[in-house]
Predict the structure.
Amino acid sequence: MGGAVPESEVRWAVAASSELVLGHDLVLQRSDGGRAADIRSRAIDHASDAPRYLAMTLRFVSTLVAFAPFIRSVSIAGSLASGGFRASDDVDLNLIVDDGHRHLAYVAVNFLGLLHAFRHRAKPVDDLTRRPIAPRIMTANLILERSQCHPLARQDEDMAFELLMSQPVYGVDVFEEAVDANPELLDHFPQLGYGSRALALDSPSRSRAPGWLFPAWLDGAARRVGNTAWRYMQWTRRDKPDALARVAYVRATMRPYTLFDEPDAS
């Protein structure tokens, strides 16, 4: 409530639907009605917490793409993009990368993310963002190779929503090419065809590292390093069933694009 659509029209639309309810001035799916207070609280926190972390994220992305020239597009996803960010959250990043560089991209995000987190050790944390050395701040949420986008193996409603709720900040043209190559996504959410460039970085603030430093054959080593680090993080959450359940749920929604699912990934 309180948006561009008049309140009377919102109430009429909710009354006409068996799947929607109103709660705390929010329009919710009936199944989420019990979470109305928490969702509203997150929206309020977002207004105060998001600006600082958005600026921080743009600086991080600028450093990331300068360090890792094989990263062709970066989008902010998760709560920072959707309007429910709290200071204890991490920042989800969706990437499109050169073929044969998915694991290198994962390691790059986590390596630079760890260095970045050392400067923000006082950041509030929860069971998902607490780490032994420094808080989890920057997270690789979805990593796609360019060939995987043309076309996507998944063009369902959930994938369309994931892309709709993300905000491209680097390589916007690459992101838009991926949307154009998957027209079925627009059947679910036509708004995908009208993306915003409001947060787009024109170019890295520093010169990019040469691509020959990261040949595709290094991706195998990066896979082993990344898999070890990922499994260690899950081990640190062994006594936190809610955190493990959340990770399992997110990974399930990302398949077949999750990393470290392969039988020989150990």
Observations:
- The mean pLDDT is 91.
